[in-house]
Design a protein that fits this description.
Structural class: mainly beta
CATH architecture: Beta Barrel
Number of domains: 1
Radius of gyration: 17 Å
Helix content: under 10%
CATH class: Mainly Beta
Strand content: over 45%
């Protein structure tokens, strides 16, 4: 089942999108599919696949789906709705997101709820326009507790073939050490092309090696 889902994800195409606080315009959509692979000490590979989609249902309402799967061992499925909170123009904007779904470990599944407050801001540099996003979330996995998450994303979006992207994710549950994950990446998009590939490295404190991540974005 995991291989079938992964294959379907890799068949999707893509284009760059602003994350976090930005809403989709009405009747527009964005999808992102990715896979991360790590080499184990015995020579086998451990992989994780994900799929993300959002749709501008109304001018002030974006709905979406967030899926993640690790070799049929664990993963989640989350449906969410995003609404604007405040827009400060050049100083950035805030939005709120409410999600509900399920988290599973092998054949067992439990309810999952998530609330996120996002801040996003565009900026200009000598190397082109860019954006940054900060997402603060409370995620209630009903089988093992509430996680506090803080994520950071920043990237450039010029007309160059290559643009940098950095993503840092953190999660904390009471009584446990802070969990972190960092992904430096490069976005690859030819001028006037609707397709963007994102190729990067992934490092987290749960492993002592570095994996490779490939993502495909698409805007409709």
């Amino acid at each position: 089942m995991g291989r079938v889902v992964l294959l379907l994800f890799l068949l999707l195409a893509a284009a760059p999108a602003r994350p976090g606080a930005w809403l989709q315009e009405k009747d527009s959509a964005f999808t992102a599919a990715s896979v991360a692979a790590f080499r184990n000490q015995d020579g086998s590979f451990d992989y994780k696949s994900s799929f993300y989609a959002e749709f501008g249902y109304r001018p002030n309402l974006t709905i979406g789906l967030d899926l993640e799967e690790r070799q049929d061992l664990n993963g989640h499925a989350l449906m969410f709705a995003r609404i604007p909170v405040a827009d400060f123009g050049q100083w950035g904007r805030f939005s709120a997101e409410f999600g509900a779904g399920a988290h599973h470990k092998q054949a067992r599944a439990w309810a999952l709820y998530k609330v996120t407050l996002s801040y996003g801001k565009g900026f200009q540099t000598g190397r082109g326009n860019g954006w940054l996003a900060i997402d603060a979330a409370l995620e209630n996995r009903t089988h093992d507790g509430v996680y506090r998450k803080l994520d950071f994303t920043a990237g450039l979006s010029s007309d160059r073939l290559l643009n940098p992207l950095i993503q840092v994710e953190t999660a904390y549950r009471s009584g446990e050490p802070l969990y972190w994950k960092a992904r430096p990446s490069v976005m690859i998009r030819a001028k006037d092309s609707a397709i963007t590939w994102v190729l990067g490295l992934e490092r987290n404190d749960a492993r002592d090696d570095t994996g490779i991540k490939l993502a495909i974005w698409n805007r409709f």
